[in-house]
Amino acid sequence: MSLKDQITEDMKTAMRAKDSERLGTIRLLLAALKQKEVDERVVLDDAAVIAIVDKLIKQRKDSIEAFQKAERKDLADKEAAELVVLQAYLPARLSAEEVATEVKAIVAELGATGPGDMGKVMGAVKAKLAGKADMGQVSAAVKAALAG
């Protein structure tokens, strides 16, 4: 079963359970998926679905931070609940050590030597670790690997 089919089944389950908060989040996710399919006239594979989920999670994290600064705990809590639902659709994340190991292997493979190769390395790392690791963490690991 593809990830998109799993999300659709989860929506049906949430409807039956009358879980309105979960249902709203899943509908929001499905709307984002459908929008991408319509805009680009493609059928999304699991990698594309994970990329969209990652994007929505980043939006939720940014919103939570903004709401906390504005002292809007009610809105921050709502975003946090959506974040939990969305994170269930991501594959298991790599640990910091695993990310560092993967980055070092890619740096060695590409023959990158310094900070000037950051773009080349990040392109290769994004292709390999998309959906498996937080890109902020990956970026820090790449900087550390290229610094020496």
Describe the protein.
The protein has about 150 residues and is mainly α. It contains seven helices and no strands. The chain has helices spanning about 5-15, 20-40, 45-70, 75-85, 95-110, 120-130, 135-145. Helix 5 (about 95-110) crosses helix 7. The longest helix is centred in the middle third of the chain and has 24 residues, at about 45-70. The chain starts with a helix and ends with a helix. The model has no long low-confidence stretch (mean pLDDT about 90).
Share of helical residues: over 70%
What proportion of the residues form beta strands (DSSP E)?
under 5%
Helix/strand-derived class?
mainly alpha
Which regions are unreliable across 5 or more consecutive residues at pLDDT < 50? none
The secondary-structure element order is HHHHHHH
Overall mean pLDDT stands at 89
Question: What is the count of helical runs?
Answer: 7
Major sheet characteristics: none
Total strand segments = 0
Rg on CA atoms, Å: 18 Å
Rough shape?
globular
In whole angstroms, the N-to-C terminal distance is 43 Å
Task: Describe the protein's topology.
Elements: H1 3-17, H2 20-40, H3 46-69, H4 73-87, H5 96-110, H6 118-129, H7 135-147
Helix pairs in contact: 1-2, 2-4, 3-4, 5-6, 5-7, 6-7
Based on the model shown, name its key terms:
148 residues; mainly alpha; globular
Short description:
With 148 residues, this protein is mainly alpha-helical. It is 78% helix and 0% strand. The model has no long low-confidence stretch (mean pLDDT 89).
